[in-house]
Amino acid sequence: MLHCAGRCLDLSHPHVMGVINTTPDSFSDGGSLYPFGRLDMELALQRARDMVAQGATVLDIGGESTRPGAQPVSVDEESQRVLPLLERIARELDVVISVDTSSPQVMCDAARSGAGLINDVRALTVDGALEAAALSGLPVCLMHMQGDPASMQAAPHYTDVVREVAAYLRERVVVCEAGGIPRERLLLDPGFGFGKTLAHNLQLLRALPRLAQAGLPLLVGFSRKSMIGKLLGRELDQRLPGSLALAVIALERGAAIIRTHDVAATADAVAIWRAVDEIVDGALDDIV
Ligand code: 7PM
């Protein structure tokens, strides 16, 4: 059980995390929550409701674009995008809210506004983030990234990507534990697409069981990413089948949470995977 503020995530089975991007330049949906140049709260809330109805048990709310080449945004801007929406979702929906941020200020504010999880692509390396996360008492997803979003895809380089990502995550876990975040509160993510070539991404997916050996739940995100584009030659809006295939492979290799823009389809894939996984327990006896 992962304790996420008032809610619990039962990690004895995998979960779907729906992405709600509040940035105007979102990589995957091109700022679709900005029909008139500013964030449409009702549209964002409706997106959240739909995702929960489709089977998301976690929603990841982000206000900073981490796409390759993205420019950083100010903390105030990030807060203004994320906090009002987070408060409304917390009040209205039965779902764990993950806040996608690296900023200590946003972590603190989000925790007060009802966030149940911190998703930090910089793994609490920003000054003050470790302290803020520890103080919040929330679980944290530690993600690996090589470099920073502005330049990470320029020339990713590893001698042994699996060893290096595993070592980095292990080191971050040690730092977190020393900083007052017990391992029961930590999740790990190899960070697909974050300073990785296609070959690096494939090696990491293949070796997911090795990352799972840390004994912490794994969160993975492939949704619409360029590794699918590279493998299949598909544009953004044609990457769902590829995303689902990668999600199922990740489930098979121990992933606990799948981060996705396409909740309904991903929830179907998870349901199929669970049916096969659980048939041994007699849980499906009534199906015949
Ligand atoms: C390139 C890389 C383009 C990443 C767009 C993205 C993840 C995340 C994102 C992930 C965790 C996107 C993103 N991806 N957080 N935030 N894991 N924990 O696809 O894979 O939305 S941003």
Q: What is the molecular shape? A: globular
Helix content: 40-55%
Task: Tell me the number of structural domains.
Answer: 1
Reported by name, the CATH topology is: TIM Barrel
Low-confidence runs: none
Task: Tell me the Rg in angstroms.
Answer: 18 Å
**Can you give the mean pLDDT?**
92
Tell me about this structure:
The chain is α/β, with parallel strands linked by helices and 288 residues long. The chain has one domain (7-274): Dihydropteroate synthase-like (TIM Barrel, Alpha-Beta Barrel), CATH 3.20.20. 41% of the residues lie in helices and 16% in strands. It has helices at 41-53, 75-92, 104-113, 129-136, 161-178, 198-206, 208-212, 226-232, 240-252, 263-278; strands at residues 2-4, 7-9, 15-21, 58-62, 96-100, 117-120, 140-143, 186-189, 218-221, 255-260. The strands form two sheets. It has an eight-stranded parallel β-sheet with strand order 8-7-6-5-4-3-10-9. It has a two-stranded antiparallel sheet with strand order 1-2. Helix 3 links the parallel strand 5 (96-100) and strand 6. Helix 1 crosses helix 2 (75-92). The mean pLDDT is 92. Ligand 7PM binds next to strand 7 and strand 9. The site of ligand 7PM has 21 residues, from strand 7 and strand 9.
